UniProtKB/TrEMBL annotation:
GO terms for biological process: intracellular zinc ion homeostasis. Coiled coil: none annotated. Belongs to the cation diffusion facilitator (CDF) transporter (TC 2.A.4) family. Residues 7-200 form the Cation efflux protein transmembrane domain. It holds the Pfam family ZT_dimer. This is Cation diffusion facilitator family transporter. Residues 205-282 form the Cation efflux protein cytoplasmic domain. Its main location: membrane. One of its GO terms (cellular component) is plasma membrane. It is a multi-pass membrane protein. The chain crosses the membrane at residues 6-27, 39-56, 76-95, 107-124, 171-189. It comes from Deinococcus hopiensis KR-140. It is found in: Cell membrane. GO terms for molecular function: cadmium ion transmembrane transporter activity; ferrous iron transmembrane transporter activity; zinc efflux antiporter activity.
């Protein structure tokens, strides 16, 4: 499902680049050029997402016992870096056009073509974000947000070029391109920041951590306490580990049964979880963890 969505994203990105490139060739607008350049980044990003999803789908092996899910974050980082490079290129072109403005041509047709491309991006961008969140795929979510950011910039470009047509003030064209570049730069920075945090094993959100503790507290019957909870995300998988304190006289078989119950509950209530539990005797209790009910 995720790979199919990424392939469709690549096909759509190629179509959108062709439309926006055509709009630029029709008008000579640097703002429309900036819009087409950002969409060209979408093509590269979609290709990177396909590669990342293919790698991430590979099962764990001897060299990668935790799987390959983090490959998706590399795709998201690459996309963010490409967005930043595109924004700097747009700024350079806009400054050049501001210093040497030139009249624009066929603005009406160019705006229509760009609007069609923008509508395609908006529709599929929303689909990718929803699908990526449902499948917990960072690559799809990043690709979807990039398309939606492209929509925002496209709308700004259309408004700017439309004002050029209405007012005849050609300086509005490069000014619109500079505004687009600044917004794109911000989007790229946020995308890189979020992906790097995940590569550095950022913990699950606070509400997810609390949900884990509540489930353990409710279903750890026979145990005394759970402490030292740790979580991290890797693509669609959430790794969970913690220490479970049981009575010292409890048999290994009984302690193992409690762990099996907790693993089943956590993996059922939180699909995509990988749970590791370290059992300790009651002398190791910290009295600062989660008491079992």
């Amino acid at each position: 499902m995720a790979l199919k969505s990424a392939v469709l994203s690549l096909i759509l990105s190629v179509i959108v680049v062709a439309l926006k490139g055509g709009a630029y060739l029709l008008t000579g607008s640097v703002a429309l050029f900036s819009d087409a350049l950002e969409s060209l980044i979408n093509v590269v990003a979609a290709g990177a997402a396909i590669t990342a999803l293919w790698v991430a789908s590979r099962p764990a092996d001897d060299n990668h016992p935790y799987g390959h899910q983090k490959a998706e974050y590399f795709s998201a980082v690459l996309e963010g870096v490409l967005i930043i490079v595109a924004s700097l290129t747009i700024m350079f072109s806009a400054v050049q056009a501001l210093q040497h403005p030139r009249p624009l041509e066929a603005l009406g047709l160019g705006l229509v073509v760009s609007s069609v491309a923008t509508l395609l991006n908006w529709s599929y961008g929303r689909y990718l974000v929803r699908t990526g969140e449902h499948l917990r795929s960072p690559a799809l979510v990043a690709d979807g947000h990039h398309l939606l950011s492209d929509v925002v910039t496209s709308v700004g470009v259309i408004v700017g070029v439309g004002l050029v047509k209405l007012t005849g003030w050609h300086a509005l064209d490069p000014i619109a391109a500079i505004v687009v570049a600044l917004y794109v730069l911000w989007v790229g920075y946020r995308l890189v920041q979020g992906s790097l945090n995940s590569l550095l094993d950022e913990a699950a959100p606070a509400e997810v951590q609390q949900q884990i503790k509540n489930l353990v507290q409710t279903h750890a019957e026979g145990a005394l306490e759970a402490h030292d909870f740790r979580t991290r995300h890797a693509g669609s998988v959430t790794f969970i580990d913690f220490h479970l304190v049981v009575p010292g006289a409890m048999s290994v078989e009984a302690a193992h049964a409690i762990c099996d119950e907790l693993e089943q509950v956590l993996e059922t209530q939180m699909p995509g979880s990988e749970v590791t539990i370290h059992v300790e005797p009651e002398g190791q209790a910290k009295h600062a963890g989660v008491p079992a009910l």
